[in-house]
Amino acid sequence: MLDWFDYHGHMCIVFDMLGKSVFDFMKDNGYQPYPLEQVRYISYQLCLSVKFLHDLRITHTDLKPENILFVNSDYCTELGAKKRKEGRVVKNSDVRLIDFGSATFEHEHHSSVVSTRHYRAPEVILDMGWSYPCDVWSVGCIMFELYTGYTLFQTHDSREHLAMMERVLGRIPSHMIKKSRKSKFFYHGRLDWDEESNKGLFVRDMCKPLKRYRMSDSEDHVLLFDLVQRMLEYDPNDRITLSEALRHPFFDCVRFSDHHSAKDSLSTCNDYQRISR
Questions:
Q1: What is the tens place of the pLDDT at every residue in 97-107?
Q2: Which one is catalytic: 55, 62, 99, 235?
Q3: Is 55 labeled as catalytic in the residue annotation?
């Protein structure tokens, strides 16, 4: 906070001027995904920021690409080596996390529903209570979106959302179904979902097992999906913590660098073709 002032009874807070959100930049770029090195660096900063909150016993509860802003969203234009499609590459992938309007201290009341739909963890949908791991789930969804250019769970319906999760991640664990306060979603211990219905066919067409979204079998891509898989564990008790995530091999090349200097982001636009190959 740089300053604050009262405007006719409305509290105004002054922050640094920032650039576009990572979502708006991607949208203006025709939903082209970010180069892998920028996915890595943005994700590392996000994990570091949210871990800072968790260490203060705060859950953000509304993590999404719209709430991650570039410090400066200036870009250059390059022709991608694979798609032969001209795209924008942000020059500096330093980011800041914003919007703490729903952030909740551990000792405060926890509302039953949190998070924007697409980034909502299963324990929230199943009304099992939530804590810091719900942020980790959201980070996993965001990393996937930065990598692919599209939302992993594109839905506005809870039952359909759970069906998409099962299509991507496998069956919901039975012990979570038993603990859920949303019994209406289940029948005889399984998700009450007709895979042959129009909605069922839609989910089957829209979603596939997580690893099938991987664009390469190279080590960096494999490590990225290993980390995302651990962030998308159904059971919040089994989900990786952000302290553990920051030590994951996917972040090895940024962990000991100066993460305030964008050293490991794309330093020049010419790097884009090298990375995309």
A1: 999 999 999 99
A2: 62
A3: no
